[in-house]
Amino acid sequence: MPTDKYIKNYIDGTLVPPGSGKYLDNYNPSTGKVYSYIPDSAADDVQKAYEAAERAFPEWSKSGLRKRFRILQRLADIIEQNLEEFARAESIDSGKPISMSRSVDIPRSHQNFRFFATAILHFSSESHHMEGRAINFTLRQPIGVVGCISPWNLPLYLFSWKIAPALATGNCVVAKPSEMTPMTAHLLAKACIEAGLPPGVLNIVHGLGPKAGQAIIDHPKIKAISFTGGTSTGKQIAQKAAPMFKKLSLELGGKNPNIIFADCDFDQMMVGTLRSSFSNNGQICLCGSRIYVERPIYEKFKEELVKRTQFLKVGDPFSSVTDLGALVSKSHMEKVMSYLALAEVEGGSILCGGEPVPMKGEFEEGYFLRPAVVEGLAYDCRTNQEEIFGPVVTIAPFDTEEEVLKYANSVQYGLSATVWTQDISKANRVAEKLEAGVVWINCWLLRDLRTPFGGMKSSGVGREGGLEALRFFTEPKNVCIKY
Asked: Strand 9-11 to strand 14-16: parallel, antiparallel, or no bridges (unpaired)?
């Protein structure tokens, strides 16, 4: 399944160029050079995709659970059988180490299709008996044509996370991947053709958010939007979609606290904290970017974190010794570095990292940055309040539970939090008071696909995952039968 230099849209079961004939440059972050081209799609491309989905919906929605199960399982098989090709494409497109693409991104992508293919077979609805009078039962029916828009940080992982439950529940989809990481979505289109997915059931339109993405949101007959991305974009989507009464699932930003108590298992905590700080260059909405450490172990923790951070290998994504690859784009690297400059202005000290990594040969113009640890900032400064989304963490000591909960809950976001302690009572007490949709105790990014996923406050609206996703992509209808 080789990659193509010119990516195409996938509409009505066929790979097609954009109606305008225009293409956008697609950069390899590791080299800083254009390596492929993506369609610069617009509203007319989205309209064609919608029309194909509308035609396909009556048959697909009535095709039966087992047919949808078999097709989604075949699609998962194809992704798994071509794991190396998908992983290589993901790493070229995003700059992440291929070790991560092989072990996380692509395995999770085919697991998403398998999970929801199976989950739909077990999805059930409720009944309510009115004694001696009537029975009520709930029908859960597919919505129709829905829109799925995914981000660049976990490209196929999150794209499939939305598409799989939408298809499993009998909807047809118009989807847009990020314009910065389009290649695995293109490979997914080829896999759909090979798997025998009926034409029009899934349509993938590439392009810019303000053009192709906005056209999906604006379309009056696309009845639901599932979006993962920045909070500011989420606000714009909500403002546009709410008057049109579209169903919305918005998984937005995070500025997640990592709370470390003195009674933690120190070695286990250090391994977990390094992962939660810098996995995928900190370009995961669940990364713990604000680290609060109970004062008795603060100095020990600081010394160890700086040492381990300095040992991380930044470089060639295809090297077996690389820990961190390139950031996704030049503009994103500049944004991250601007926050490091701001941190110093706000009184912080950069204990390690924060500078570009000089590279040679083909990687000389790539977007490589050493991971940074920052100390000495107030909990309510901009660096500690705004989402950086890069390899930057701040650290600070605390003395009491009350104090650290104040720090943790001070931001506008409420996506996730991590707590390290051996005291189960303390863990439950703190978890209950944290304003976060996901709380990990003595672990990080341990995910059961059956559980609800999403955030509070400015981190989003609604929940994804498990039955929550199946509920989102269906409309409940009560039927009352009197007897």
From this structure: antiparallel
Q: What is the pLDDT of residues 375-384, one digit of tens each?
A: 999 999 999 9
Q: Between β-strands 392-398 and 372-375, what pairing exists: parallel, antiparallel or unpaired?
A: parallel
**256-448 CATH choice from 3.40.309.10, 3.10.20.30, 3.30.70.3270, 3.40.1280.10:** 3.40.309.10
Report the share of the chain in percent with pLDDT over 90: 99
**Helical ranges in 11-105 per DSSP H:** 43-61, 65-81, 83-94, 98-100
pLDDT attached to residue 2: 55
- Catalytic residue set: 251, 285
Q: What is the pLDDT of residues 319-334, one digit of tens each?
A: 999 999 999 999 999 9
Contacts with 320 (C-beta within 8 Å, 6 or more apart), sequence order: 99
Quick check: 397 and 294 in contact, CB under 8 A?
Answer: yes
pLDDT confidence tier of residue 3, bands split at 50, 70 and 90: low
**Residues with Cβ within 8 Å of residue 127, at least 6 apart in sequence:** 135, 136, 137, 138
